[in-house]
Amino acid sequence: MHSKHENISSAQTITVIAAAAAAAVVVVVVVVVVVVVVVVVVVIVAVDVVVTTVVVVEVVLVVVVAVVEVLVVVVAAVVVVVVVVVAVVVPFQLLMGI
Question: How far apart are CA 7 and CA 54, in angstroms?
Fold first, then answer.
């Protein structure tokens, strides 16, 4: 038969095991919560970075488009000037040559 002392020690052992299990559960829960929070923060930061990058890219594209438009206008103006000069000078040269 078990003595009274053995019963008490086995009860203590069960209590210690239960406490250890409870502590382990608490640690696991805390770790899971921390991991989830870190993941959420990382995702939020990543999304923020992506959004910022998209905005920067949009601004760059707008600037590039504006520069291209200005260049097109300048080129068109140069072409018009050249055409006008040729249209005026060539007949004049031909007339002078005659």
Answer: 69
CA distance 5 to 13: 12
Residues 60-72: what's their mean pLDDT?
96
- What pTM did the predictor assign? 0.47
Write out the DSSP string of 2-64.
Answer: --HHHHHHHHHHHHHHHHHHHHHHHHHHHHHHHHHHHHHHHHHHHHHHHHHHHHHHHHHHHHH
Nearest 5 degrees, angle CA 51-CA 64-CA 60? 20
The whole-angstrom separation of Cα 80 and Cα 74 is 10
Record the tokens describing residue 8, joined without a space.
């008490």
Which band of pLDDT confidence, cut at 50, 70 and 90, is reported for residue 7? low
